[in-house]
Amino acid sequence: MARGGIYKSEVKQARDSLLAQGLSPSIDAIRVALGNTGSRSTIHRHMKELEAEEERGGAAGQAVSDALQHLVGQLAEQLRTEADERIAKAQTACDATVAQAQAAMAEQAKEGRSLSDQLQRIETRLRDEREAHAATQEELHQERTQSATLIERIAGLEARLQERDTHVASLESKHQQAREALEHFRQSSREQREAELRRHEHQVQSFQVELRQAQDILTSKSQDVLHLNRENARLSEQYAERDKALRELQRHHDQAVTTVKELAAVKREAETVARQWVETHTELEQLRGEFQRREAAWEAERIAWHQEREEQARHDQRLQAIEGLLASLKTAPHMAAPSAKPPSGP
């Protein structure tokens, strides 16, 4: 922060130092040499006083008339004042442009953090979906094992039933009571098979409900990816606005260069403005590179999402195949029941 005031001796020392270095002792250059302190009006006043003192001290040894010397001093002061005003205007415009670019970069960084949080939430949901998918596969494996066990039990019951029918047929003429007991056994076996089939159908219905829930989750995830695509389009529009601002900054730079050509006495100050523009241009190029990297990241996320959808499609096909297998297992006991031989007459 600039201090309250500066002394004329300090201004004189800074001006002499710039002249010794071969630099032009402009108001901005003297202010920089003083550590960016003191107002321009104060520095300008001290400069005029120093020039007046030097003119009074060297008046006796000058060969030109006082009127001509005074006229030259006024012209030089007027030229310096006009040059300082133009440089101040160019500096103010450049500072405003740099401030706008910095604000845009801060907003871009904030949006980048927001997008990063959204991506993290999507990754968390994808991880939960994979875990749910693994649990579904585990339940499917258990269902297959249980179905195989039921098939083995049904086959064992049918084998036992066939053996019993053969044994009863051979002894039916002598054991009428054994035939009645066999009929009761058949009825019990049939009721047991029907109970097992009802339980199996209930398990199939539960699996179908879980399958619909997984499809609902996939639909929600598709909507999230659509939202991300809209965010990507919004970022593209913002990039176009940044590029427009860069062209406007280029136009201002061209105007500043034209002004500098007209003012040869302030060439070094114009070079300072040009360096500031180059720095601003570099920062905007970095912002453009950051946008391109984010766009590439969005493209990779979109590809990953399509791959996830393809994997989900394959998963749906496998589930449909499993449903077909369960349906065939459901109809198998009804087809196997008529295969039992009816008891032969006495």
From TrEMBL:
<feature type="coiled-coil region">
    <location>
        <begin position="119"/>
        <end position="252"/>
    </location>
</feature>
<keyword id="KW-0175">Coiled coil</keyword>
<feature type="domain" description="KfrA N-terminal DNA-binding">
    <location>
        <begin position="8"/>
        <end position="118"/>
    </location>
</feature>
<protein>
    <submittedName>
        <fullName>DNA-binding protein</fullName>
    </submittedName>
</protein>
<dbReference type="GO" id="GO:0003677">
    <property type="term" value="F:DNA binding"/>
</dbReference>
<dbReference type="Pfam" id="PF11740">
    <property type="entry name" value="KfrA_N"/>
</dbReference>
<dbReference type="InterPro" id="IPR021104">
    <property type="entry name" value="KfrA_DNA-bd_N"/>
</dbReference>
<keyword id="KW-0238">DNA-binding</keyword>
